[in-house]
Amino acid sequence: MTYWQELTQAIGTGWNRFWFSPRDPRAVCLLRLLVGALALYYVLSFSADLVRWFGPHGLLPSDTVARLTGPPQTEGISAPDRWSYFDYTRQPSELWGLHVGGIVVLSLFTLGVFSRLTSVLSVVVVLSYVHRAPMITGQFEPVLTLLLIYLCLAPTGACLSIDAWWRGRATSRGAGPASPPTTPSIMANVAIRLIQVHVAALYLVIGLTMLGGTMGAEYDPTWWRGEGMWWLIAKSESRLVDLTFLHGTTPTYLVNIWSHAVVAINLACGVLLWNRLARPLLLVLAAVSWVALAVVTGLVSYCVIMVVAGVAFVSPERIARWTGAAASAS
Fold it and tell me: Fewest 10 Å CB contacts: which of 79, 111, 237, 306?
């Protein structure tokens, strides 16, 4: 009986320490800056063709999107709810008004103004674009939205924000209690842990999908043979740099090694990012891999946000050095 008591107590203690230990909020504040900037970039990218995409006579008017994403014909199965405030627009002026409003919200969130409110509104803004045109989304949007949702839980305005600057001014004038702006927070830890678990799962799924074959409906061992990177290099429509000279020559072995390395890094990150000693090396290798993939595939925004997501695994002490202050004990 003593063994089971010790076992359950150890599991409970470890669980509580993992999820509910107070954490320095600088990590979530830094993520707010980086993720907010990427969300702002995403929304701004629609500006040039906003009416052409979402206007009443555009390529994706609301009624067309509703038909494409509406309930399937199978009885008893309902379609997912894809609410978007763009569904209520009838004129280009209304469309532009909501677009500008979304840019303002994301700008305020990135700068850390009314962070608790703007973090939630930022999720609404980004999902409105994603749900309005799900057929033109890619790998970038799911990672962006999951990071925004988890950041809603955390005190992202605790530092590196205008909110913190306002609090500092109020304190210096004697208008408020003097409290350290980076007090360890349980919700900061919860948000970071949720991001860590989700990102590690993403890495593991990416690696397993590569090994499972992604070239068609039937199993295709492209990555097993070390040819996965070559198929990405050969796609001329999206690449930033032409590396096709690597085919048919001795350096072909470099492409094979590169392919196997990409799979190995993804699988290792999915399993070993929890190891403190392996974590710094894996984060560096993953960042190098994503930069190289951005050059080959042209999926720059997706590769950048995966590197940004890795910030959740950086120690509070290192982030404190990056932000120019000593970390609070956690």
Answer: 237
Report yes or no on 142 lying in a domain: yes
Kindly provide the b/e burial profile for residues 26-59, where b requires at least 16 CB atoms within 10 angstroms of the residue's own CB: bbbbbbbbbbbbbbbebbeebeeebbebbbeebe
The pLDDT of residue 103 is: 97
Residues 163-198 pLDDT 10s: 988 888 776 666 555 445 578 999 999 999 999 999
**Distance, C-alpha 132 to centroid of its chain:** 20
Structural domain contains residue 3: no
In the prediction, which pLDDT does 76 show? Answer: 47
DSSP helix/strand/coil, 211: helix
Q: Can you list the residues of the chain whose pLDDT is less than 50?
A: 73-79, 178-179, 214-217, 326-330
* Residue 170 falls inside a structural domain: no
Per the structure, the count of domains in the chain is: 1
Helix residue spans in the chain (DSSP H): 2-20, 26-44, 50-54, 62-69, 92-111, 115-132, 140-151, 162-172, 186-212, 228-233, 252-272, 278-297, 300-309, 316-322
Say if CB 198 and CB 232 are below 8 A apart: no
DSSP of 272-301: HTTSTTHHHHHHHHHHHHHHHHHHHH--HH
Domain range enclosing 130? 23-66+86-162+183-322
CA 178 to chain centre: 34
**CB of 318 within 8 A of CB of 329?**
no
Task: Please indicate, yes or no, if residue 11 is contained in any of the structural domains.
Answer: no
Length of the chain: 330
